[in-house]
Amino acid sequence: MTKREFLNALNYYLSGFKKEERDEILYDYEEHFRIGMESGKTEEDLIKELGNPKNIANQYKNSSEGEVNNTQDNSSRSIGGSILILIALALFNLIFIIGPYLGIVGALIGMCVGAIAVAISGVAVAFCTILRSMFPANVNIPKGIPDISVIFLGIGTTALGILFCIGMFYVIKFFIKLTVKYVKWNIKTIKGE
């Protein structure tokens, strides 16, 4: 038997494998032949060392079936463990996580509403000051502060409110990322990964 006949026979006996797996196995044996021939061995010597192609293919088939059986055994054994972990995580999350989480969500909502209120109040101050100067009313308003200063105060308050809104956007984005990571961690823990 020659090297080519050996590899063709091995390819034939590995016909149940995926093409990628089969190509990888055949490549390994071609490399074995190349290295062996570089060290001075003949094709016949190498074929005697390797053995029968059918036996080699059967060894690969048996090892891949063993891996499938092991993964099936592990998955059937881990169902009970996964259920216990699920119950433990649910209790932990219910007792220790949900309360503070809802508190943080409430605080974030309050801060967002506050940021929007600051921006709107700045607009209202500037707008009302402009309207007051256009339509003077008989209202006793102290005259000590010039209208332009109040307008700039309103613009500054609006800018502060907008910056506060932008900051809250990034805080909420970070909070959502943390929430997603925590949920993924829970799922990985339940799966046993």
Give structural notes.
There is one protein chain. The chain has 193 residues and is mainly α. The protein is built from five helices and no strands. α1 packs antiparallel against α2 and α4 packs antiparallel against α5. The longest helix is centred in the middle third of the chain and has 82 residues. The chain is elongated. The mean pLDDT is 85.
Protein structure class: mainly alpha
Mean model confidence by pLDDT: 85
Ranges where pLDDT stays below 50 over 5 or more residues in a row are none
The coarse silhouette is elongated
Question: What is the helical fraction, as a range of percent?
Answer: over 70%
Strand content: under 5%
Radius of gyration: 37 Å
Which sequence of SSEs, written as H and E, runs from N to C?
A: HHHHH
**Counting H and I runs of at least 4 residues, what is the number of helices?**
5
